[in-house]
Amino acid sequence: MRLGIKSSDEFIQLLNNKNESIQKLFLEKMKELTRTVTVKGMLGDSTIAEQNTFDPIPVQEYFKKIIKNLPDWVSRDITITNNEDLRRIFVKFELKEGNYLLSCHMSIQFHVLLFYKPDNKVIEYQKELSEIIDKTKNIETKLAEDSDQYILEKLKEIGHKDLEHKDLFQVFYENDNLRDKIYKEIEEKSESNVQDLLKRKKQLFNELDNLLMEIYQTTSVLIDDSKLVTGEEGCLCSFDLEHFKNNIKEGMFDPKKIPVRVKEKLSERLDEFIKIMMI
Questions:
Q1: Where residue 198 falls among pLDDT bands split at 50, 70, 90?
Q2: Assign residue 100 a region: left if phi > 0, alpha if psi is -120 to 50, beta otherwise?
Q3: Distance of alpha carbon 142 from its chain centroid, rounded?
Q4: Residues 236/2, Cβ–Cβ less than 8 Å
Q5: What is the pLDDT of residues 123-174, one digit of tens each?
Q6: Which of 107, 118, 187, 265 qualifies as a cystine partner to 90, CB 3.0-4.6 A?
């Protein structure tokens, strides 16, 4: 049973009110922790653009503080998911009272944009990289074709007959030493200046990657599970109450059958959350 569900039961209404208070406190805290600052980032065409970003580290530290102050709850480590430009930081808690399990899920979901740092090196590296690409674009194609043909000839020399290009992967996968030996011969066979250019091109790409900066953007609104799954920005704070019957969790049950003592403990547990969220 997800707290917040409409119910005529007085106890569930009580838990719903506490859940609503926790959600409001959580949202206010997320607004505070995701307050943005303006930074300058460089686009691929070297133009400078101002962007608003926040620091996700304080959010992680806040979740750690909640974990620390809820020793009776079982909590998993803080998890960070990274799906291309979408990132999520979340933590889950659960606690059993009698035959009832109270669980909580807190998370924040945000998008990540990549910009270059406003550094003249970006322009210098891009210019050099463009020149190298112009010099090597035809050479690389020819080198790849010549290399494949050279590999086939060398393999035929050592007994691999009737091989085609599609068979090369299987042969090399089964024989690392042979692969390394032939690739070394190809490098020695190719012109040194071409190899130098290709190595420099790889180095420049790495240098440009090191000059990238991440911009974090989110929206200070509460979202539900469905919006979380579809990748919407925002934060989520939800509580579920489940009943154990014969060691099987039930989401639907009669709240009137919850023992009075268990009701008191469940209510106290939500009060614990409220106090911690107000720190």
A1: confident
A2: beta
A3: 39
A4: no
A5: 999 998 888 887 776 555 555 555 555 565 655 655 555 555 555 555 545 5
A6: 107
CB of 27 within 8 A of CB of 222? yes
Question: Nearest 5 degrees, angle CA 79-CA 84-CA 90?
Answer: 20
Measured in whole angstroms, the distance separating CA 248 from the mean position of its chain's CA atoms is 32
How many Cβ atoms are within 10 Å of 274's Cβ, its own excluded?
Answer: 14
Handedness of CA 115, 117, 120, 125 (dihedral sign): negative
Whole-angstrom distance, CA of residue 98 vs CA of residue 264: 11
In contact, 257 and 264? CB cutoff 8 Å? no
Please tell me the predicted confidence (pLDDT) of residue 187.
55
Q: C-alpha 131: how far from its chain's center?
A: 35
Contact present, 131 and 201 (Cβ < 8 Å) = no
Note the pLDDT of residue 233: 96
pLDDT at 38 (0 to 100):
95
Using CA of residue 129, residue 131, residue 135, residue 141, what is the dihedral sign?
Answer: positive
The structure tokens 């590999």 sit at 151
In the numeric block, the tokens 């399990």 are attached to 101
Q: What is the greatest pairwise CA distance in the chain?
A: 85
Structure confidence by residue, pLDDT tens digits, 42-67: 998 888 999 999 999 999 999 999 99
DSSP per residue, 160-174: --S--GGGHHHHHHH
Neighbours of 112 (CB within 10 A): 16
Give dist(CA 109, CA 30) in Å, integer.
11
